[in-house]
Design brief:
Elements: H1 3-7, H2 20-32, E1 36-39, H3 46-56, E2 61-65, H4 72-76, E3 77-79, H5 81-90, E4 104-106, H6 108-114, E5 120-124, H7 131-143, E6 145-148, E7 153-156, E8 162-167, H8 175-179, E9 182-185, H9 191-201, H10 207-221, H11 232-244, H12 250-255, H13 261-264, H14 268-281
Parallel strand pairs: 1-8, 1-9, 2-5, 5-8
Antiparallel strand pairs: 3-4, 6-7
């Protein structure tokens, strides 16, 4: 095991509230040089953890947003045949069309391999991809190399990236995939931790507003049949909206007058349901 890896320890970041268990799994994952697979519902801070690691360890962050139609090769490199064809036809480019390498562009994983400094590679929402993509991707990440067939060249990673993979658990991942990652489930923050998170973003917030906003937020999350419950990001934006309104009064929120529901509920059926429930029960 590389001693340098053990010396790089994640201790948290300015906008990320870190619990001890999560800090341990991040650091042991870096020491073991394995990908860290994070599961949890949206809004639990999975994506933000990669940003926090990059900030704390002063590493560049490369983000691969996985799409259902994505091909693994596109995450490694792309060969721009169209530009090469146009250059050969019109001859007004500074590139030498006989050098195919000039038309190779690295994808996100490729960028993390060729970087001169160690990076954090975030592979976001891996559950959107099919099983073959997932398993083949981990083969590349295990070997830390891939081939560019068009130029018969093997790209080997200059530095092993810190790899964070997120999943919203919408689709099961294969057993081989799970077996090659360290795993951590991030639970949705409880009210006490949520207060800590809010105070990180709003250090000057009044105690009355903090308590009223967090209490209301969790009561709204209890509504049944909501397709997309409000998450941490919505709460932060909602508090920002409340503070920006010069006419807002905390006592009205405590009484059940809840403004800016559209900041919390982003889907029309959820928004309509919340409006009906609030007017009916005036909780």
């Amino acid at each position: 095991m590389n001693d340098d890896r053990m010396q790089q320890r994640f201790t948290g970041a300015t906008k990320y509230v870190l619990d001890e268990e999560l800090a341990k799994i991040v650091n042991i994952t870096m020491a073991l040089e394995m990908p860290l697979l994070l599961k949890g519902e949206p809004g639990t801070g999975k994506t933000m953890l990669a940003h926090a690691i990059a900030e704390d360890l002063e590493m560049p962050l490369i983000v691969l947003n996985v799409k259902s139609s994505m091909k693994l090769i596109d995450t490694l490199y792309q060969y721009d045949t169209l530009t090469r064809l146009n250059d050969s036809r019109f001859g007004d480019s500074s590139r030498d069309v006989s050098k195919i390498e000039d038309y190779i562009k690295m994808g996100k994983i490729g960028q993390s391999f060729v970087s001169d400094e160690r990076v954090v590679l975030l592979i976001d929402e891996i559950d959107k991809a099919d099983t073959d993509f997932q398993d083949d991707m981990l083969d590349v990440l295990d070997q830390m190399e891939f081939d560019i067939l068009e130029i018969d060249k093997t790209i080997k990673a200059k530095q092993r990236p810190v790899i964070v993979i997120t999943s919203n658990a919408k689709k099961d991942l294969s057993d081989p995939f799970l077996g090659r990652c360290n795993f951590h489930h991030i639970a949705f923050p409880d009210p006490d931790m949520m207060r800590e998170i809010v105070m990180v973003h709003f250090p000057e917030i009044s105690q009355d507003l903090l308590d009223a906003a967090v209490n209301t937020f969790y009561r709204l999350r209890e509504f049944k049949d909501v397709e997309k419950k409000p998450a941490t990001r919505e709460l932060i934006n909602w508090i920002r909206a409340l503070q920006a309104d010069p006419d807002f009064k905390v006592k009205e929120l405590i009484k059940g007058d809840i403004p800016y529901l559209g900041v919390l509920f982003k889907k029309s059926p959820d928004y309509a349901m919340a409006q009906r429930a609030i007017s009916r029960f005036r909780f």
